[in-house]
Amino acid sequence: MNRVVITGMGAITPSGLDVPSMWDAVVHGRSAVTTLEGPEFDGLAVRIGGRVRGFETDLPAALARRLTPVQHWAIAAADQALAQARAQAEALPWASERVAVIAATGSGPVDAMQQATRALDGRGPRAVPLSLSMHGAPDAAAALISQRYRIFGPAQGVSATCASGAVGLGEGLRRIRHGYADAVVVVGMEDCLNAVNLSSNANMRALASGYDDDPTRASRPFDAARSGFVMSQGAAAIVLESERAARDRGAPVLAELAGFGASSDAYHPTAPDPQGAGGARAIRAALADAGIGPDAVDHVNAHGTGTLAGDAAELNAFDAALGATGRGIPISATKSSTGHLLGASGVVEAIIAVQTTRTGILPPTINLDEPAFPEWDVVTEPRALRVDTVLSTSFGFGGHNGAVLIRTGELHDRS
């Protein structure tokens, strides 16, 4: 039973193009949500979201042309994480066949298929790019990263809608814990910020609307005026490795990934179980996996999307899983700043949880003007607190639930 630690992190998000800049934006409560400009968005019911801005790829031009933006971001985030973990393509610090890559995404590079479909409709079969077969699948980013770093272990995709990132981290945790790998690169990635996906979510009334004059006010988790989530795009990466391997090579231990739990609501295609039973099962499983009780949790980074049903169900899940101690645990909902990165959000928020343990600062939930659940301690201003353990939750359409526990790099005796 190998302990699993985090030794590298990377992020390409609307809130920043690396972890320090993303954390600075989130901890200071700066919204990344903007108006979506361009002809693609003209006439849409919802024209706001979180866009990645200012990114420039360093990939060779011939390869770069064949990839979609989300794959560029995924590779760049992995580059950042591996650099922090002191891993180079020419000299990996682990045996390459003992390293795995997991690309966690709800939808994969959807723009590739959409562009190919338009090309087919407009110019015929010969216009469909041959690269679609290679780079149009959800797992393609994992294969690209494995090729870039000469990683010979498994490279695959993991998909569980908005719980994908948490599930990817959990699968990486299990591979290392049970001896199948010494290190796993987990990349959460998503880009559904296009007319098709925005229209679909707007038509089901899942997106916040009516904030065209001030998009920064749109994402309102746990607020009485919340009306839906705000879609964002981006990628984030975490390098996991066994505690033994990290210590042996003197790698920086940023935190421990101590526990993981997952479940299904088996309830409805989009609506969560109102009682939060599925989410509670995932949280209890994560606590059991880490060998701790609810009283050991110091902070919660909530899924907190700002939907009417989702926020209420999540708090019911906390009540059921955390018991009497739950309402005394401070909660942050950082999608209020970043927007909702869908399948990437679990990795993004695990990184925020690591930063919380390392800095002792709880990030705020912005736009919480009229709390809908005043009995809960939802953090609205940066708060200094010694944090040893953070619970990060991720729930998605289809009833997918994931929960991870991040603990400080000072590893605990759980023998």
Can you put this structure into words, describing what you see?
Helices cover 33% and strands 19% of the residues. The protein has 415 residues and is an alpha/beta fold. The strands form 3 sheets. A 10-stranded mixed beta sheet has the order 5-4-6-7-1-8-14-13-9-10, sandwiched between helices. Strand 13 and strand 14 (400-408) form a beta hairpin. The protein is globular, with a radius of gyration of 20 Å.
Set down the secondary structure blueprint:
Blueprint: E1 4-12, H1 19-27, E2 33-35, E3 48-50, H2 61-64, H3 69-84, E4 99-104, H4 110-123, H5 132-135, H6 140-149, E5 155-158, H7 164-177, E6 183-190, H8 195-203, E7 234-242, H9 243-249, E8 255-264, H10 277-290, E9 299-301, H11 308-322, E10 331-332, H12 335-338, H13 345-359, E11 361-362, E12 383-384, E13 389-396, E14 400-408
Parallel strand pairs: 4-5, 4-6, 9-10, 9-13
Antiparallel strand pairs: 1-7, 1-8, 2-3, 6-7, 8-14, 11-12, 13-14
Helix pairs in contact: 3-6, 7-13, 10-11
List descriptors.
415 residues, alpha/beta, ten-stranded mixed beta sheet, two-stranded antiparallel ribbon
H and E string: EHEEHHEHHHEHEHEHEHEHEHHEEEE
Order of strands across the main sheet: 5-4-6-7-1-8-14-13-9-10
Distance between the first and last residues' Cα: 11 Å
Coarse shape:
globular
Number of helices: 13
The percent range for strand residues is: 15-25%
Question: How much is the radius of gyration in Å?
Answer: 20 Å
The mean pLDDT is: 96
Helix content: 25-40%
By secondary-structure content and strand pairing, the structural class works out as alpha/beta
Q: Got a strand count?
A: 14
**Main beta-sheet annotation:** 10 strands, mixed
| Low-pLDDT segments | none
